[in-house]
């Protein structure tokens, strides 16, 4: 099975490359208003017909076409995300797209550890570096499709890998939460990945932001500028986002390494929506629910599982945290502890939930009849989702 991945890359400093990136960004800005088209954004083909001959640039023809597709794609993405552009995009971030291999001849990698890249002054050979953790993927890639580079020389290269098809034989029940980010269980073992460290980081950043926002309010009252304060707030927001992404990717890597060979990772099919201040929920509870990175964790695990040849499945989440994994009767959950009054089973509530997820998927896959206990009222349904598709 062929999959696409982006791996980080760092290029050696080159003045010719920097000027090429600046020209690429200038060309994007010059055609952005034409693509906006008064609020009715153009697609790539229509934009190409309008600007290719009329807007001059020192870029090679292929890079001009790439810039046109990138600009049109930005407007199309905004429209797909239900946030259509209200004014022409500025494209503040300076970066350039180079096509490689079958897609184009903007750049190519050589065996001597350097790459040949097209600039506005001709072809140049530049050294590059790839982190050791991604070196094997780069060397074993089937194709190398494109390269995106910023002004700092850092960027990413899109590659195609040939990975084994997932078989999904051994089920692994997984419960996602806030205190315990991941609790995964097989019939014999359990893996627990704590989320306390991430929560502590978020609390520190939240308190810092609250303190800075109070400072911003006091400055506004005095009629002073708040540009520096906004800059710090934006930096803190980016820091929090990056730390959450890093945690999810590290947790996904640890989970997939722990999972048995030919596993199917089974999750609860949760539908989580952000709670508003109009709802009668405690402020702390609302903050925890809104900061629960369920979708990001699912995406991180899916990407890693796809790379390692593991399957992904989802089951109905009804009563998974309330019934006993031994007898199937409703029990008593008190925080992190679960007690069953029927069979005297005592267990961690998250582990109990993960075992219920595992059992539910095993029953559904086996085609057996549902029991007539509490979980049957939820009408649980299980579905195996192809990798790369949404749940």
List the helices and strands and how they pair.
Layout: E1 2-11, H1 15-36, H2 44-51, H3 61-80, E2 95-99, E3 107-109, E4 114-119, E5 122-129, H4 132-139, E6 143-150, E7 154-162, E8 170-176, E9 180-185, E10 190-194, H5 196-221, H6 227-258, E11 263-268, H7 283-291, H8 294-308, E12 311-315, E13 332-334, E14 337-339, E15 346-348, H9 349-366, E16 382-385
Parallel strand pairs: 8-11, 11-12
Antiparallel strand pairs: 1-5, 1-7, 2-6, 3-4, 4-5, 6-7, 8-9, 9-10, 12-16, 13-14, 14-15
Helix pairs in contact: 1-3, 2-3, 5-6, 6-8
Round the mean pLDDT to the nearest integer and report it: 85
Cα separation of the termini = 20 Å
How many beta-strand segments? 16
Low-confidence stretches: 368-391
Strand content: 15-25%
Q: How does the helix and strand content classify structurally?
A: alpha+beta
Number of domains: 2
Radius of gyration, in angstroms, nearest whole number: 26 Å
Could you give the order of the helices and strands? EHHHEEEEHEEEEEHHEHHEEEEHE
Largest sheet: 7 strands, antiparallel
Rough outline = globular
Mind explaining what this structure looks like?
The structure is a single chain. The protein has 9 helices and 16 strands. It is an alpha+beta fold and about 400 residues long. The protein folds into 2 domains: about 1-160, no CATH class; about 170-195 and about 260-385, Nucleotidyltransferase, domain 5. Strands 2-6-7-1-5-4-3 form a 7-stranded antiparallel beta sheet, with helices on both faces. Strands 10-9-8-11-12-16 form a 6-stranded mixed beta sheet. The protein has a 3-stranded antiparallel beta sheet with strand order 13-14-15. Helix 5 (about 195-220) runs antiparallel to helix 6. Mean pLDDT is about 85; it is low at about 370-390.
């Amino acid at each position: 099975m062929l999959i696409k991945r982006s791996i980080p890359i760092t290029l050696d400093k080159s003045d010719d490359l920097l000027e090429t990136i600046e020209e690429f960004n200038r060309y994007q800005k010059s055609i952005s208003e034409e693509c906006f088209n008064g609020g009715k954004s153009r697609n790539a083909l229509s934009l190409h017909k309008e600007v290719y001959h009329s807007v001059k640039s020192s870029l090679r023809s292929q890079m001009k076409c790439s810039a046109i597709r990138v600009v049109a794609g930005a407007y199309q993405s905004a429209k797909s995300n239900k946030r259509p552009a209200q004014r022409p995009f500025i494209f503040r971030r300076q970066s350039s797209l180079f096509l490689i291999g079958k897609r184009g001849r903007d750049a190519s990698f050589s065996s001597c550890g350097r790459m040949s890249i097209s600039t506005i002054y001709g072809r140049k050979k530049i050294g590059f570096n790839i982190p050791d953790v991604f070196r094997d993927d780069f060397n074993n890639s089937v194709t190398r499709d494109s390269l995106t580079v910023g002004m700092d020389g850092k960027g990413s290269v899109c590659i195609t890998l040939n990975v084994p098809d997932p078989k999904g034989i051994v089920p692994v029940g997984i419960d996602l939460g806030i205190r315990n980010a991941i609790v995964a269980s097989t019939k014999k073992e359990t893996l627990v990945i704590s989320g306390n460290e991430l929560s502590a980081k978020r609390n520190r950043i939240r308190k810092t932001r609250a303190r800075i926002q109070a400072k911003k309010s006091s400055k506004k009252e005095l009629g002073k500028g708040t540009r520096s304060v906004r800059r710090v707030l934006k930096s803190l927001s980016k820091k929090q986002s990056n730390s959450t992404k890093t945690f999810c990717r590290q947790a996904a890597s640890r989970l997939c390494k722990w999972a048995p060979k030919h596993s199917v990772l089974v999750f609860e099919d949760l539908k989580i929506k952000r709670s508003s201040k109009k709802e009668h929920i405690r402020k702390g509870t609302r903050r925890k629910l809104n900061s629960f990175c369920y979708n990001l964790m699912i995406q991180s695990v899916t990407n890693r599982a796809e790379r390692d040849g593991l399957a992904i499945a989802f089951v109905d989440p009804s009563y998974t945290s309330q019934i006993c994994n031994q007898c199937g009767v409703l029990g008593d959950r008190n925080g992190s502890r679960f007690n069953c009054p029927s069979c005297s089973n005592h267990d961690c509530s998250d582990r109990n939930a993960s075992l219920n997820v595992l059992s539910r998927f095993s029953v559904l896959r086996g085609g057996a009849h549902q029991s007539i206990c509490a979980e049957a009222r939820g009408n649980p349904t299980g579905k195996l989702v192809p990798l790369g598709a949404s749940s």
